């Protein structure tokens, strides 16, 4: 059993909002829309939905139930079920992955904040460019974002993470609906909707299915113990099926809504929807520029993006924090500051890459150029796939899928009907699909 004071959500909705906050992030609002748009529109969305339902939901439930059953961080959870074995290395991998993702994710999130400040000052993207210009300034925004994350996590599970999720997630939803409604009234909006949603099945290839699968894992925050750690703060009577299902529904809903928010405006003002990763920082600002009241819209957009990113970095920091608090009896405050400092230092090379400083822009490894891209490949792709695969194998061979299903069913009687499909998914579908993702990442 973990220490009694390690923390607990005050309610089911507290867990759902915090976990949805982790899942909903730059992955949903920045990455999902442009990948979907590029790779078959509505057809990609359908493939993505299938991946979320068949792979994402089972792995999500497995992670949450492993956390709740052990009431521990990733290392402690594995150690409790199979003490004294190398399985705990998987737990350490989860911690490293959390730190690794946090370090570069916070660089992009810092850029979002620079844009937010730019729009708040009335100067828009141009002002943001000045604010975010040069290596020092990029590092300062990285630091700002890490400090914000630290301030939330230092408050603890109930008074930090849950409290802020309860305030920020409704704000995010409201702003998003406002921006969608605003966009749909623009002339030409329906063309954007059609481009985003019309299924083009001819574009569905093996690669597209692969990218839908890995997008699903990243977006649902799976494979590095974030959901495990959040699940460990659930009490013994909360309904795991309902918790997991709501998080999946929120995350997927927001990803699709993000497309509905972005493309009508992009089309209405005649911009290029296939600009890929540069969509939000380059194309959208010029869209806002052409829009009456564009500065307000831009402010709202970057505000909701900052919120989404913050609740995600909070979960990345919490995973590492939970380990030091549970296993090393460090105080939460000391841990959070130390881990935050480590994430900042590790993030500096990514920040310098973002600021265009040599050699960080030109380093090449694993077929990727630029330090930030390399970090994303290493932690955001490779390590998440390894982590999810090993986690599945741990549940199959060590913990046993039946026991996992019992843990879920113990507080969710309605799970009985889903038990067999769940067991089949965790035992066969998930490991095979993740192994294929992993192979493609390694061979890329
Ligand atoms: N899911 C978040 C997003 O979509 C990012 C994230 C937060 C994450 N925690 C994670 C990804 C843990 C993988 C693992 O932006």
Could you give a short description of this structure?
This protein is mainly α. The protein has helices at 12-23, 26-38, 42-70, 74-81, 87-120, 124-131, 135-154, 156-184, 189-197, 206-219, 226-231, 240-268, 279-289, 294-327, 332-354, 371-399, 401-409, 419-443, and strands at 364-365, 368-369.
Structural features, described:
The chain has helices spanning 12-23, 26-38, 42-70, 74-81, 87-120, 124-131, 135-154, 156-184, 189-197, 206-219, 226-231, 240-268, 279-289, 294-327, 332-354, 371-399, 401-409, 419-443; strands spanning 364-365, 368-369. The protein is mainly alpha-helical. A two-stranded antiparallel ribbon has the order 1-2. A hairpin with a 2-residue loop joins strand 1 and strand 2 (368-369). The longest helix is centred in the N-terminal third of the chain and has 34 residues, at 87-120. It starts with 11 loop residues before the first helix and ends with a helix. Bound molecules: tryptophan.
Number of strands: 2
What oligomeric state do the depicted chains represent? single chain
Mean pLDDT: 93
| Largest sheet composition | 2 strands, antiparallel
Radius of gyration: 21 Å
Q: What compounds are bound to the protein? A: tryptophan
Low-confidence stretches: none
Distance between the termini: 42 Å
Main-sheet strand order equals 1-2
